[in-house]
Amino acid sequence: MLAGGAARRLGGADKPAVRVGGRTLLDRVLGACADAGDTVVVGPRRPTARAVRWTREQQPGGGPLAALAAGLKHTAAATTLVLSADLPFLRPETVRALRTALVDGGPEVEAVLLCDPDGHDHPLIAVYRTEPLVRELALLAAEHGSLFGLPLRLLTAELALTRLPHPTASFDCDTWEDIAAARARIRDDGSVLDEWITAAKAELGIELDVDTTALLDLARDAAHGVARPAAPLTTFLVGYAAAQRGGGPEAVAEATRKAVALAERWAAEAADAAEADGAAVAKAEESP
């Protein structure tokens, strides 16, 4: 992952450390490739939500090819996922789709690049076969004397490519206007709840995928059948009970099931009580 650069259009701000949706841009991209076998970040060390290996190019500020070559020295994997650290809408499923496309393309395909709706290639959202990637970087360095300052198009022009279209994953944050647009989009579209849950799990150090629909249904039933404050308190108690039983999705599901059953019993009793009260009123009205 490339996390260097001067961020001149951000006034020199540390772009990978800028927060969108409560998480740094760097952590958002790291979350999208969380299942990578090894993660190397080329750039200054920063706090991250998960452990990574850090490195720098010999001359910082040498551009993407120099940074890419520095990162490749620390991996022996057959394929290399290359990402920039300013992609707020990159998702794990997009990363998996890139990797699947490379496998499906067969050995003759040397890289799969993401492309945006306008047809522009994004070499820093791509998966490469490592051997031809290293080969072409070495040839470029030999031809030009070094990789310092060379544009990415010199690399991709020599590789056998295929492309994966995606409508939003290539959105990057080069300006404060881009940052503002990303922050607004997260809050305006239908993914705001997922964004919040992901940010909260990262902040709390939780790596747990649970059935959020079931928890929301439980909260709704507790709020309607008991009282509004019962919703957050009940979901808290479910989490606490699951933790006491070792945690994990199964423990959460079992605690949720029990709480749902209790809420149903509570609601049934309330309905019975209301029916009994109604019958008593009717009987009183019929009495002479």
Would you write up a description of this structure?
With 288 residues, this protein is α/β, with parallel strands linked by helices. The chain folds into 2 domains: 8-188, Spore Coat Polysaccharide Biosynthesis Protein SpsA, Chain A (Alpha-Beta Complex); 208-286. The chain contains 10 helices and 8 strands. A 4-stranded mixed beta sheet has the order 5-7-6-8. It has a two-stranded antiparallel sheet with strand order 1-2. Strands 3-4 form a two-stranded parallel ribbon.
Number of strands: 8
Q: What is the CATH topology assignment of the largest domain? A: Spore Coat Polysaccharide Biosynthesis Protein SpsA, Chain A
- The proportion of residues forming helix, as a percent range, comes to 40-55%
Report the C-alpha radius of gyration, rounded: 26 Å
Structural class: alpha/beta
How do the strands line up in the largest sheet?
Answer: 5-7-6-8
Briefly, what is this?
The chain has about 290 residues and is an alpha/beta fold. The protein contains ten helices and eight strands.
Characteristic key phrases:
alpha/beta; single chain; about 290 residues; Spore Coat Polysaccharide Biosynthesis Protein SpsA, Chain A; two-stranded antiparallel ribbon; 2 domains; four-stranded mixed β-sheet
